[in-house]
Amino acid sequence: MKIEEIRHILEANVWVGEERLEGEVHAACGCDLMSDVLAFAKEEVLLLTGLVNPQVIRTAEMLDIKAIVFVRGKVPTQDMITMAKQKSMTILSTEYPLYIACGKLYRMGLMNEGEA
Amino acid sequence: MKLHYQVDGDNFLVAGEASASLKRTLKQLGIDASIIRKISISMYEAEMNMVIHAYGGVIDVELSADKVAIILKDTGPGIPDIELAMKEGYSTATHEIRELGFGAGMGLPNMKRYSDYLNVYSEVGVGTTVEITVYLT
């Protein structure tokens, strides 16, 4: 699924990575616990999370995750935006809660598990 | 090749920078992505532990033809019961650390899961040394 399509489905704001919206993800992982993301997430998935701090960006970097959606209307800090820009990531935010955001993407075809 | 990193304690903005830096180096060297992933995850968890529990420390990495050996040393409070600390779900982290998405008792188990060899030496009041080895082949 293209990131542009994800942006549209989740009515999301784009904080960084506008130029990479044509990029695609094939699986997704919804999680607030970064240690679980590290333990179980596959590479190059979409990460949906309600956790907002620089460690989210760092965790994504470790796993080559290129796109993150912050849920529940959470807004990334300037530090996080700067980090994400340096690492060529795309950051979106949506008002939907985690469960609904995951459900909407799943229903629209992003059905592969992002967890190994 | 030998690499050395200094890790600051309690600076969550730069926590993980050493692991990120090693990851970039390994990528440049053309090491297989699945092996880089094992190294990155286990070192990042160990680095976060240093920041969270031990006021930082030093990391030495030795890259050879067949393996990457990482030694993380701190002079923090030490781990009284390593066997207990290795159990998934056991944690002594504070509420603030949990808010960062860590402190769920997955750090040491994740290191074990992703490394080929893990050794933890610790003395209460003296510090902890974590040795992580990942084979390249």
How is this structure best described in words?
The complex is a heterodimer of chains A (116) and B (137). With 116 residues, chain A is α/β, with parallel strands linked by helices. Chain A has one domain: 3-Layer(aba) Sandwich (Udp-n-acetylmuramoylalanyl-d-glutamate--2,6- Diaminopimelate Ligase, Chain: A, domain 1), CATH 3.40.1390. Helices cover 36% and strands 16% of the residues of chain A. Chain A is built from five helices and five strands, in the order αββαβαβαβα. Chain A has a five-stranded mixed sheet with strand order 1-5-4-3-2. In chain A, helix 4 (78-86) links the parallel strand 4 and strand 5. With 137 residues, chain B is an alpha+beta fold. Chain B has a single domain (2-135), classed as Heat Shock Protein 90. Chain B contains five helices and five strands. Chain B has helices at residues 17-28, 33-53, 82-85, 95-99, 107-114; strands at residues 2-8, 56-63, 67-74, 117-123, 127-135. In chain B, strands 1-2-3-5-4 form a five-stranded antiparallel sheet, with helices on one face. In chain B, strand 4 (117-123) and strand 5 (127-135) form a beta hairpin. In chain B, helix 1 packs antiparallel against helix 2 and helix 2 (33-53) runs antiparallel to helix 5 (107-114). Chain B is globular, with a radius of gyration of 14 Å. At the A-B interface, helix 2 and helix 3 of A face helix 1, helix 2 and helix 5 of B.
Query: Which of globular, elongated, flat, extended, rod-shaped describes the shape of chain B?
Result: globular
Let me know the average pLDDT of chain B. 93
Question: What structural category characterises the helix and strand content of chain B?
Answer: alpha+beta
Number of strands of chain A: 5
Largest sheet of chain B: 5 strands, antiparallel
Number of helices of chain B: 5
Domain unit count of chain A: 1
Q: Please state the CA-atom Rg of chain A, rounded to the nearest Å.
A: 12 Å
CATH class annotation of chain A: Alpha Beta
Structural class, from helix and strand content of chain A? Answer: alpha/beta
The percent range for strand residues of chain B is: 25-35%
Q: What's the CATH topology label of chain A? A: Udp-n-acetylmuramoylalanyl-d-glutamate--2,6- Diaminopimelate Ligase, Chain: A, domain 1
Low-confidence stretches of chain B: none
Provide the CATH top-level class of chain B: Alpha Beta
The run of helices and strands of chain B is EHHEEHHHEE
Biggest sheet overview of chain A: 5 strands, mixed
Name the poorly predicted regions of chain A: none
CATH architecture grouping of chain A: 3-Layer(aba) Sandwich
What is the largest interface, and how many residues per chain?
A: A-B, 22 and 24 residues
pLDDT averaged residue by residue of chain A: 93
In total, how many domains does the architecture of chain B comprise? 1
